[in-house]
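ESCALATION

Customer reports they have been waiting on this structure for their group meeting. Please prioritize. Original submission:
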Amino acid sequence: MTDQSDWRPATKLVRGGLRRSQFRETSEALFLNSGFVYDDAAQAEAAFNGDVDVFIDSRNGNPTVATFEDRLAALEGAAACRATATGMAAVFAALLCQVKAGDRVVAARELFGSCHYIIAKLLPRWGVEVEFVKGTDLDAWEKALSRPTTVTFLESPSNPMLDIVDIAAVTELSHRAGARLVIDNVFATPLFQRPLELGADVVVYSATKHIDGQGRCLGGAVLGAKDFIDDVFQPFYRNTGPSMSPFNAWVMAKALETLDLRVERQTTNAARIAGWFEARSDIKQVRYPGMASHPQHELAKRQMSGFGSLVTIELPGGKAAAFKFLDALSLIDISNNLGDAKSLVCHPSTTTHSRLTEAERLDIGVTEGVVRLSIGLEAPDDLLEDIEQALAAASAA
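Update from on-call: job pushed to the front of the queue and completed.
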């Protein structure tokens, strides 16, 4: 079997993009170099003209980075992928490569704080018109996209309230308006949601999250059609330099080999913990797309094959109760990261979404009692015991 498109996901995660050197190593090689040499001056000229397919420097491309890019593209079902230094570098580059002064961007309001900052604060400085809509409201999307638009942007599930956006419907509306749809697919992972198959044009990831999944390296990725990556994204990427380091790419490529094993276990744990939360009377709200109580549960079932490792709860005692809960946890770590092998917890209104105004936070459901949990690989009974005693501490006078 040589056609990677015929491989199943687990095989793509282990074998996709594999390029062995002349030494025929078993594990992927790490090319930790900044530049490359040419056979002669004519080849160097041809390389810069794009007439020959050779590596120029590791800012533009590197064999180890290419292995990671090709492996992730094979899993995603994308024609092309470019790796970036961080997830936010991926978001920034995917947006900025497409817009100029006078263009228009429509985005869901339910975004990670830094994504919201780029769209709400930076793009208007450069003359780009921006409009935010409620991501789950298709009528709002239709109204906003009744005018010509360049780019639409959304997260699904969203951070931190796990709202689900109808990707296919928003894609159709976006294309009618002349826009490309860019989606941050981090929470769903490429295992559980296939935005390109639902019509989306560009997918971005923070590879720091589930893809690495062990708290080691920063990274990001942008995936899409070959003409978009080559003709629209690559010139911006080449000249602004948000490239991933070869070492980080090597770590990420190796991490992909166990992605499905890790995420499946994390998701099983998360579903059990979410159900446990829902059965309690001391929790004001539980958000998990896999539960029937989730407001977009039926949509989640249609466009996702699994529901992920994130669980969001709201405690009735506001910030004071949330802080008591976080501080009482002994096994679960306080961290704004997610998708890690270790279970992590954060208080979004004072961390990931602290740059939003209070009104903006409340508009997307982020009250001071909201707590986001990223469930890891620990034994679920140990996690539940830790959570139970922390809830007791949070409710104590």
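Sent to customer with the following note: The CA atoms of residues 12 and 75 lie 6 Å apart.
Escalation resolved.
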